[in-house]
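seq as requested:
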Amino acid sequence: MLKSVSVLFSVLLVAPLASAEIFKCVGKYGEVLYQNFPCQFESMGGTPVAQGPNKTPAVPAKLRLGMTTEEVRTLWGEPTDTVQEEPGRGGRFEVWSYGSSRAVRFDHRGRVSAIQQ
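struct tokens:
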């Protein structure tokens, strides 16, 4: 019995302790990412991202033509009202309203075609 205990004790002292550090980061479009390396490195390429210590990558501050519906939601949130229209020859489009002064128009592919601010 004493020999078993001493062998077990020896194995515990020799075996390295397993540990891992998990970093909670913010992705390119504001999504939460968990990774096993610091946030200043992208998860796919391992290349540094331009940022200071303890800062997350910035989401683009301004809507641009061609952005997707998901990118608009990331920047402006959920719309207060949506309207879908199919004019005669122009094709289908959708307009998202944000109060009385802001609106975004999407083309038939779901890309921003006009912005009212």
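The longest strand covers residues 93-98.
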